[in-house]
Amino acid sequence: MTDAIQARRSAVYLLDQVLGQQRLLAECYAAGVLERLTPEDRARTQRLANETLRNLERVDKILAKYLKKNTPLHVRNALRLGVYELCAGGAAHGVVNSMVNIVSRHKHHGALKGLVNAVLRKVAANGPDEWQKLRQPRLPKWLRGPLVEAWGRDAVAGIEAVHAAPAPLDITLKPGGESDLDAELLPTGSLRRAEAGQVSALPGYDAGDWWVQDAAAALPARLLSAQPGETVLDLCAAPGGKTMQLAAAGATVSALDVSETRLTRLRENLERTGLKADVIVGDALEHQGQYDAVLLDAPCSATGTIRRHPDLPHAKDGSDFGALINLQAQMLAHAWSLVKPGGRLVFCTCSLLPDEGECQVEDALEMFADMQVDQSTLADLGVDSDWITEEGGLRLRPDYWAERGGMDGFYMALLRKSA
Ligand SMILES: C[S@@+](CC[C@H](N)C(=O)[O-])C[C@H]1O[C@@H](n2cnc3c(N)ncnc32)[C@H](O)[C@@H]1O
Q1: Which residues does UniProt assign to the signal peptide (predicted)?
Q2: Is 28 a catalytic residue?
Q3: Structural domain spans, the chain
Q4: Which residues of 263-278 are buried (b: 16+ CB within 10 A; e: fewer)?
Q5: Is 3.50.50.60 the CATH classification of the domain at 3-133?
Q6: What is the pLDDT of residues 143-164, one digit of tens each?
Q7: What's the pTM?
Q8: What is residue 2's predicted lDDT score, i.e. its pLDDT?
Q9: Which of 26, 44, 248, 354 could hold 358 in an S-S bridge, CB 3.0 to 4.6 Å?
Q10: At 257, is the secondary structure helix, strand, or coil?
Q11: What separation in angstroms does the CA of 65 have from each of 17, 61, 123, 128, 157?
Q12: Could you report the predicted ipTM of this complex, rounded to two decimals?
């Protein structure tokens, strides 16, 4: 049994954090804000916060009719959640009572419970019909502009259409692992289930036969094609999806990340799957050594993961992207110094912005005379040839394979060093 009010109260708190404090949901979860909830209530809270944020444009359009601009954020967020639930078919009685209860307990805004009751009753009567007529939610202007410039209006509308629904559950199978998962096998080798459900209850989870990894995110390690016995450095490794692929391929893997907290999750993942890697806490820019192959999954805007993280467009405004682009260029240059002559490097980011993908590789190719793009493993990935870019990398977008459920946005390229 879930505690509906508890989950709703926690979801409103999360909305306050994202829309008031510009905190990402992942930061809230890492800080333990949902720790006291049962697994069921935690899942319900996350779903409510995610879906309200995914549909915020529609929700606010409906609320605008009934609400003054200066309504306090906490009250507005309780109403936002209420509108989402009512328009998604939630039972009016339960939704309205919960939201009135949540606002009535607020130490400053309790007096506004009557407003909440009145607005939500009107929304219960008219909201679901109005909702049907509203347009598909758009990305915010600061992000939509650059994406339209890069990919065109139709592509961006296609990306927004995929963002409108929750992502499917994609799974990477350990070689020889349990495959009785009732899932579709994608041409790229990932398994896909339409609904996530309780991941840890699926067959083979406890035995460590597989891990959750978006189909696009599974491709950089396959592009690198690590061989048994090779020394491979995974430079920004946590929480370890790619580390596990490299280790499962039989490589001798070093997994480095600057975040001790995120590395804890990487260690747990390795333990569950029985895979091995040398785990290093450190700054990628200071690491030294020589490796047969390096995988650099650089920190980025994460704009390719919005359907999984619908909070991102609301918590961010693009002001930190310039610093990330500079950091990626520095990391790529340093990572290149760690590759042995004749060795290779995969550079990748889960971004939709060419500045964090294609442009980085074009700049690096100009800077390093001993760097070439290697396309030899692209044909083995099961991707459409249209997705291969001019410089020989691979561009993936959420609207690709939309009829199958789409994929995360990603860029990746395999770079070979002269012997
Ligand atoms: C895109 S995530 C990596 C995801 C990971 N490769 C996977 O497949 O599970 C980027 C990572 O870069 C790490 N990071 C950021 N700055 C770093 C730095 N200076 N040195 C090392 N790691 C860094 C972050 O902590 C984060 O875990």
Answers
A1: none
A2: no
A3: 3-133, 169-417
A4: beebeebbebbebebe
A5: no
A6: 999 999 999 999 999 999 999 9
A7: 0.94
A8: 64
A9: 354
A10: strand
A11: 25, 7, 10, 14, 26
A12: 0.99
How far, in Å, is the centroid of ligand 1 from the Cα of 40?
29
Establish how many alpha carbons lie within 13 A of residue 150's alpha carbon, considering only the half-sphere containing its beta carbon: 19
> Mean pLDDT of all residues in the chain?
95
For residue 69, report the distance from its CA to the centre of ligand 1, in Å: 40
* Cα 92 to ligand 1 centre (Å): 43
Does the Cβ of 295 fall within 6 Å of ligand 1? no
CA distance 217 to 172: 10
Domains 3-133 and 169-417 share a fold: no
Which token pair is 143? 């992000």
Closest-CA residue to 296 (of 354, 353, 248, 344): 344
How far apart (Å, rounded) are the C-alpha atoms in residues 183 and 192?
A: 5
Angle between helices 39-54 and 56-64 (to 10 degrees): 70
Residue 215 known to bind ligand: no
Nearest-CA residue for atom 17 of ligand 1: 258
Q: Amino acid identity, residue 21?
A: Q
CA distance 30 to 261: 8
Nearest CA to ligand 1 atom 19: 283
**In which residue are the tokens 């650089």 written?**
298
Given CATH 3.40.50.150, say whether it is the number of domain 169-417: yes
